[in-house]
Amino acid sequence: MIRAARTETLGQFEHDLELELDGANELRPVEMAAGGALLMVAVVLTALNLRPAITSVGPLLPQMRGALGVSDTWAGVLTTLPGLCFAGAGLAAPWLSRRIGLGRTVSAALLTLVAGLLIRVCDGPLVVLGGTLVATGGIALINVLIPVIIRGSFPARVGLMTGIYTAALQGGGALGSAVTPVLDDALGSWRSALGAWSVLALLALAAWLVGARGLPAAGNDGPAPAEQGRSLLRNKLAWTVTLFFGTQAFLAYVVMGWLPEVLMDSGTSDKNAGLLLGLISLIAVPISLIVSPLAARRDSQSGWIIALGVLGISGMLGLLIAPAAAPLLWTVLVGLGMSVFSLALTVIALRARDAQDTVRLSGMAQGFGYLLAGVGPFLFGLLHHATGGWTVPWIMMLAVYLVQTVTGALAGRGRYV
């Protein structure tokens, strides 16, 4: 019965997302240069807001815990919320956008992000968690919908706009971790530093209201297809891709949530810890723009995945054995390893024969994958609290990294679901 319910839920997700993509194919292409430029600015500003709400927390986490009087378990819950929200977004985003339109849904999501960023700095531990849940819920909707808008509004420049979007997203993550400690010093409190990111979200909302006027008001103009198509729940390759995507996201969310505290515990200042976390996001930009297209030209992406995995494992071994010896080197290696995210998205597209299977595989990999990722920060914090150190959590991370590398190597081979 449970299995049937899960199959029905995933089937509905596939159905909804197929409708959304079909609707995107009917979007009117950007005809005027001015209109296209405005929409491009809106997309870039929106992408800049998709990570600071998450990466800004890490550098201030010790200060927040001291001021709020909370435990490692609370911190683990705080850093777990984004992954859980991202897991559920695939169910809500296509449904909502079909009813009120792509542009209005993104606008509503940005307004939700602003509200969440302001709410979470107003009161105690539960309010912080609730505000973070609201903010990341808005981000989760945008994660699903912006690629659809790029595909429909820039049909001749999908590769270029996707690269710009990815670079802005990673750049926003770097800003969140690097600038937040500076804002803390300038504004005098962690609450003001975190709340200040609502200004960037308001700018994106203003740009979106102007730049997205050409998008349709509703996305459910066509009839629903009679059949939902085949499910991939019993496909071994689909589960391999899902496990690959989930384990890399597991590692990424642990690093974004906990690396600054690990570095500060080994003697790194809060500013430098924030800068090092920002460096990880910056490293991913050239990898996304260069390595992914190169890997996509080959029948197999396994070699690239294994190479990045070895680099990432090396960095985590350094953090385990001697974190204070060379924090910059360990951070660079971890950043190179985490750049496999772009290859995870590439693999999803390459392991499907057609658009329908791409939708199904993407929904399965990201839905279940982000659910797995949501466990990572909480488990890392729980192990740290139980053992009083960082050794056991990093050993757990190395084990997950091995699983990621093996499943990535299998998923990267030239086959189809």
Structural overview:
With 417 residues, the chain is an all-alpha fold. It has 2 domains: 1-218, Up-down Bundle (Growth Hormone, Chain: A), CATH 1.20.1250; 233-417, Up-down Bundle (Growth Hormone, Chain: A), CATH 1.20.1250. It is built from 17 helices and no strands. Helix 5 runs antiparallel to helix 6 (102-119). The longest helix has 33 residues, at 355-387. The protein is globular, with a radius of gyration of 20 Å.
Output the keywords:
single chain, 417 residues, mainly alpha, Growth Hormone, Chain: A, 2 domains, disordered N terminus
How would you sum up the global shape? globular
Strand content bin = under 5%
Main sheet overview? none
Helix content: over 70%
Shape-level CATH architecture of the largest domain: Up-down Bundle
CATH homologous superfamily heading of the largest domain: MFS general substrate transporter like domains
Whole-number count of domains: 2
Number of helices: 17
What average pLDDT do the residues reach?
A: 81
Provide the CATH topology of the largest domain: Growth Hormone, Chain: A
Q: How is the secondary structure organized here?
A:
Elements: H1 2-25, H2 33-48, H3 52-55, H4 57-68, H5 72-100, H6 102-119, H7 125-153, H8 158-187, H9 190-195, H10 197-211, H11 236-265, H12 270-296, H13 302-321, H14 327-338, H15 340-350, H16 355-387, H17 391-411
